[in-house]
Amino acid sequence: MEILEIKDNKLISVADWAETVVVPDYVNEIKKDAFREKTSLKNVKICGSVKIIPENCFLGCQNLKSVELPATVEEIRSDAFNGCESLSKINLPEGLKKIGNCAFARNYMLKNVHLPQTLKEIGNSTFMCCSRLEKIEFPLYMEKIGCNVFEYCVSLQSV
Q1: What are the DSSP calls for 112-124, one per residue?
Q2: What pLDDT score was predicted for residue 1?
């Protein structure tokens, strides 16, 4: 069985047993739920020209530790990384404009987040229950910040 199922340059799914995944350059779209609840998954690097990280994309990937996103990503949709309890490192590229509701909720290991200057909108409860989040750096100009973005972020010291 292949580690990735790709059809017409769209990543459809990932093998349940995959621990490290490198999404190839020619992939320009990821299907909603493509990585959902892949509990073996630890590291992901997306190399393609993907613009959107869809809803529930990595939802419940409890052992996911790091994700490297390409510079082409403009939007991270709702619940994309919700419940990635081990996620401690993610790069949010310049060019990112929008982060959806609960996108990083329940990421207990996330400590520091640098939001790119291009970011204009953060949805509701985006970082809810990120209990180890200590520092977040905002861009100079934001158009919309949702409610309860940092609810239960008990370690947050600097915004």
Answers
A1: EEE--TT--EE-T
A2: 58
